């Protein structure tokens, strides 16, 4: 799972990236501090892994991971190259989802006045600015691709016909300043064609409201506006205080728990972010557990067993025979795989099995 972190300059985007990935020094307080994207791979907190290991002793615990790409601050006009925007926009095309950091504080902790690029704090205006630049970039992509697709379509190329048709549908949507994801498509070939165009605004967006340290749960008016906007577009919003997260990243576990309690927080931002990203992208986790390791694997909801096996290795999907599985709850109830089998709870499933969240699996395949 790969997500790109975007936002206007000085909204706390790179501070948050460094906190989440524990990447070191905080970013400077000026636009375009990050010309090439920083990439960090962070483990996704998952208590079920440790539950499994409490019953099945393994040498290692390996969580699923979230790959974060810190993309330098966008500005108005980025789609036309302002602020080296074209290079930054190119990096966004490679991610599964976009995490937009939105400033929801007036002044930084300690009263420091951090200048907003537009002169005032307005999270909905910021969201509109970023989205418009992404829409304009996609419009340029579609306009550039249309004539080529139309020429190829005249030769009867089925893929080109679908591509030309979907571009013709997309251009008026983008011209009306709506993202490409809002275009409803039902024909599989058109859906594939839209995906193949590599458009940015097809990707789902998760909003991170960067709040002040006296509003850690995002209950203030600025954060509430972002929450309401996210709900209106079928997205998710997570309140985060970048300053607190950067401090938490430097603490030992016991000190971290104490600070969380003092701040009235249940957990660091990474757990909230991971759950929100999973929900937004329609993902779930299944597990494998053996003598060497217990490990979490990420698959789309509705994924069939052979495709889930293929996440481990392509040979597992090609040679899939069956999967033996049970749930984490079964393990908690019966306390061992042997007892699960004796209780008749060990399921043997074939190629048509739809994976369930929290399945613990043993795949059988032929080489």
Care to describe what's here?
- This protein is 42% helix and 20% strand.
- The relative contact order is 0.14.
- The chain has 367 residues and is α/β, with parallel strands linked by helices.
- Strand 6 (205-211), helix 7 (221-232) and strand 7 form a beta-alpha-beta unit.
- The strands form three sheets. The protein has a six-stranded mixed β-sheet, with helices on both faces. It has a three-stranded mixed β-sheet with strand order 3-9-8, with helices on both faces.
- The chain contains 14 helices and twelve strands.
- The chain is flat and about 65 Å long.
- The longest helix is centred in the middle third of the chain and has 32 residues, at 123-154.
The total of helices stands at 14
Shape: flat
Lateral strand order in the biggest sheet: 2-4-1-5-6-7
Low-confidence stretches: 23-35
Order of helices and strands: EHEHEEHEHHHEHEHHHEEHHEHHEE
Helix content: 40-55%
